[in-house]
Design brief:
α5 packs antiparallel against α8. The chain has about 350 residues and is of the alpha+beta class. The strands form two sheets. Strands 4-3-2-1-5 form a five-stranded antiparallel beta sheet. Among the domains are: about 160 residues; about 80 residues, Alpha-Beta Plaits (2-Layer Sandwich). It is elongated. Helix content is about 55%, strand content about 15%. The longest helix is centred in the N-terminal third of the chain and has 35 residues. It is built from twelve helices and eight strands.
């Protein structure tokens, strides 16, 4: 009875000592929370107080467990339980620190602004790295917890030693998944795509909405979502319209008769662009890019700050240039010409003229 009472006192006093250490750390965390370094972003170091409530008591109890006077089986079960609690609390603390670091870094970048290239680069790297670290922490946590049980540990060792063929089969089965994980690491480093990049994938135009560990979500222009394995962006060609910058060139093609006054159309294009809120005032070009037996091809080239603005600008320019030709030069619209010789005309009219 004395041994049980002594052991209970050791456990309670150890837990109380751990809680005292936690209470001493709370003012330090609050003072850290008020620092200007964290005040600039919506990040609170108080988030780590939850796991610390378990880390300190479980660590002190484990350290004092050598003084316990309990039967062997009960002592082993108690130590195993405290080890599990300590491992889980440490894992919880590490995950909170990872998320705290993520929010601290991302809070200093605004991805909603027009020129957000640097912000998208950082967002992509941090999101991918965070998911890799989270999976790694959870994997190690489960592994260390299983090692607390001798039967499970021996079973794992025997499987690894005697069933190599199963490992080979599992390796082939997980090849795609492992390939996507490796591709995710490559994308985080080389960044062929970033969050909010404008891309054309599988003939679909949209924005990179999510970059997860094994897949990427593309938000299509009509609000559909295209889910693509992340290895696709390593193994297949695709178009990235915002790889180096968000600004982009837009083109409008018109087909007109040979009699069209190109200079007047060029002046009208300049007037349309100057009055448009979508134009960034950089590129304004009209050229004759082709000539067939019936029409000539006019290409209007213009620039915009991003692809949505370029799309709206192209539609506006196309509509107003057509209206300009219809109103001012209707004879310059495409037409088909038919030439008849005199003999044919006389034969068809019975010699009465054309």
């Amino acid at each position: 009875m004395r041994d049980w009472l002594f052991s209970l006192i050791v456990i309670l006093s150890s837990g109380a000592a751990g809680m005292v250490i936690y209470l001493v750390s709370v003012p330090v965390i609050r003072k850290l929370d008020k620092m200007s370094f964290f005040g600039e972003v919506d990040v609170r170091p108080e988030w780590i107080k939850g796991p610390l409530r378990l880390v300190f008591p479980s660590f002190i109890i484990l350290s004092a467990s050598v003084f316990l006077r309990l039967p062997e089986d009960i002592f082993s079960a108690f130590v195993r339980l405290m080890n599990l609690i300590f491992i889980a609390s440490i894992s919880w603390l590490i995950l909170r620190i990872i998320h705290l670091s993520r929010d601290l870094i991302l809070g200093r970048y605004d991805i909603s602004v027009k020129d957000n290239l640097a912000a998208r680069r950082v967002y992509t790297q941090i999101r991918v790295v965070e998911r890799i670290l989270t999976v790694g922490v959870l994997l190690f946590t489960v592994s260390f917890m299983l090692m607390m049980f001798p039967r499970v540990r021996q079973m794992g060792v025997s499987l690894l030693a005697s069933a190599g063929i199963i490992g080979i089969i599992l390796g082939f089965a997980a090849q795609k998944t492992l390939g996507n994980i490796v591709a995710g690491i490559q994308i985080a480093i080389s960044q062929p795509i970033r969050l909010d990049d404008v891309v054309i994938v599988e003939n679909e135009w949209g924005w990179i909405e999510e970059i997860n560990l094994i897949y990427v979500v593309v938000r299509i222009w009509d609000l559909r979502r295209l889910v693509v394995p992340i290895s696709y962006f390593i193994e297949h060609p695709f178009q990235n319209w915002t790889r180096t910058s968000a600004d982009i060139l837009g083109t409008v093609f018109l087909y007109a008769d040979y009699t069209v006054p190109v200079d007047e159309v060029r002046k009208e294009l300049t007037r349309i662009l100057q009055n448009s809120p979508h134009w960034d005032k950089k590129v304004d070009v009209l050229q004759v890019t082709n000539a067939t037996e019936r029409t000539i091809e006019l290409r209007a080239l213009m620039s915009a700050v991003d692809s949505p603005s370029a799309w709206d600008l192209r539609c506006e320019v196309r509509e107003k240039l057509l209206e300009f030709l219809q109103k001012n030069y209707p004879e310059s619209l495409p037409k088909a010409r038919v030439a008849l010789d005199k003999a044919t005309c006389e034969s068809e009219t019975g010699g009465k003229g054309t």
